[in-house]
């Protein structure tokens, strides 16, 4: 079951309008993703501002995503929390709603040790039947899921993937060597998508593909076709955008970029604030340079 998810998965933004979920914009965003060839969508992750969604809103976003996808692409529902019981509840909801999988960030703020991380994920895996994807992003959570712990968890049948967002190729290679095909490696850092593929990774859970899905898919398609030169060209084409979309805390820049493209309203929830004017100009210029946005 480890190869259940492969390819380009978009870590979806959550569009808001008057501080409410903008269902129409969300559905249109998903159609945009599917039309441009992504293999899956990931609602209610970090990029979806999950930290400021109420439980009711979280469930609604998952429901809307599954309905909009309509079986055409995989849906991996964000279900992470720093509370194990809450994460179990969210994973159960994802399963009941019909998601194809659940994404589980490492418990933030609590800073559990490796045994705590193992027991956290084990408890979730034993409580649901839905396929689970681990998510390691120590820069945001303050805790690092080490390769040895990933290897312990890879022995559980329902844990099928890892979104590794450290950007470290040596780290990714170590995980790959220790786990083999027992777990699917996803890049959680857009600029390392192609390098991940070169060391045995099978996909990306991407921020950039919110606004440039076809361009991210081009990397995957070229690599799958055995055309390393074309994959490298596609990778380098996206480098500037990948960098600019992290000029401030994610998802501030990508949501601004999406608004520039007419994909959502220019609205984000506190404590995040809108992209600074100088950075707006930089992001807009990058989109224009890439041909994604018409020059003003």
Short description, anyone?
The protein has 296 residues and is of the alpha/beta class. It contains twelve helices and ten strands. It has a single domain, classed as TIM Barrel (Alpha-Beta Barrel).
How would you describe this protein?
By secondary structure, the protein is of the alpha/beta class. It has one domain (7-226): TIM Barrel (Alpha-Beta Barrel), CATH 3.20.20. The chain has 12 helices and 10 strands. The chain has helices at residues 23-35, 55-69, 84-97, 114-125, 138-141, 147-153, 169-179, 193-198, 213-224, 228-244, 252-260, 277-289; strands spanning 7-11, 16-17, 20-21, 40-42, 74-78, 101-105, 132-136, 159-164, 184-187, 203-206. The strands form 2 sheets. Strands 1-4-5-6-7-8-9-10 form an 8-stranded parallel β-barrel, surrounded by 5 helices. Helix 2 (55-69) packs parallel to helix 3, helix 3 packs parallel to helix 4 and helix 4 (114-125) runs parallel beside helix 6. The longest helix is centred in the last third of the chain and has 17 residues, at 228-244. The radius of gyration is 18 Å and the shape is globular. It is found in: Cytoplasm.
SSE order, one letter for each helix or strand: EEEHEHEHEHEHHEHEHEHHHH
Count of discrete domains: 1
Under the CATH scheme, which architecture would be assigned? Alpha-Beta Barrel
Decide which structural class fits the backbone.
alpha/beta
* Residues in helix, %: 40-55%
Mean pLDDT: 95
Tell me the span between the first and last alpha carbons.
Answer: 48 Å
Which residues form runs of ≥5 with pLDDT under 50? none
Determine the CATH topology: TIM Barrel
Number of helices: 12
Assigned CATH superfamily:
Aldolase class I
Which radius of gyration do the C-alpha atoms yield?
18 Å
Q: How is the largest sheet built, in terms of strand order?
A: 1-4-5-6-7-8-9-10
Beta-strand segment tally = 10
Indicate the overall shape.
globular
Pfam families: DHDPS
Keywords: Amino-acid biosynthesis, Cytoplasm, Diaminopimelate biosynthesis, Lyase, Lysine biosynthesis, Schiff base
Pathway: Amino-acid biosynthesis; L-lysine biosynthesis via DAP pathway; (S)-tetrahydrodipicolinate from L-aspartate: step 3/4
Subcellular location: Cytoplasm
């Amino acid at each position: 079951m480890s190869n259940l998810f492969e390819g380009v998965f978009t870590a979806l933004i959550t569009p808001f309008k008057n501080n409410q979920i903008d269902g129409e914009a969300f559905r249109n965003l998903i159609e945009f993703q599917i039309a441009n060839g992504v293999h899956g969508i990931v609602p209610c992750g970090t990029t979806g501002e999950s930290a400021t969604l109420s439980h009711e809103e979280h469930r609604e976003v998952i429901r809307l995503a599954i309905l909009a996808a309509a079986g055409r692409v995989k849906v991996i529902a964000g279900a992470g929390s720093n509370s194990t019981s809450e994460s179990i509840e969210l994973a159960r909801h994802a399963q009941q709603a019909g998601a194809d999988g659940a994404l589980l960030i490492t418990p933030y703020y609590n800073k559990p040790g490796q045994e705590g991380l193992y027991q956290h994920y084990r408890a979730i895996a034993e409580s649901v039947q839905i396929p689970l994807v681990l998510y390691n992003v120590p820069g945001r959570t303050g805790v690092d899921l080490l390769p040895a712990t990933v290897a312990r968890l890879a022995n559980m049948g329902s844990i099928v993937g890892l979104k590794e967002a450290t950007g470290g190729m040596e780290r990714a290679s170590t995980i790959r060597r220790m786990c083999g095909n027992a777990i699917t490696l996803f890049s959680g850092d857009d600029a390392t998508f192609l390098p991940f593929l070169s060391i045995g990774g099978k996909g990306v859970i991407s921020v950039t593909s919110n606004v440039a899905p076809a361009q991210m898919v081009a990397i995957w398609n070229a690599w799958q076709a055995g055309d390393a030169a074309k994959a490298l060209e596609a990778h380098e084409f996206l480098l500037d955008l990948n960098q600019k979309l992290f000029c401030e805390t994610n998802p501030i820049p990508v949501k601004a970029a999406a608004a520039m493209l007419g994909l959502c309203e220019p609205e984000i929830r506190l404590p995040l604030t809108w992209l600074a004017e100088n950075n707006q100009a930089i992001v807009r210029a990058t989109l224009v340079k890439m041909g994604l946005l018409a020059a003003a």
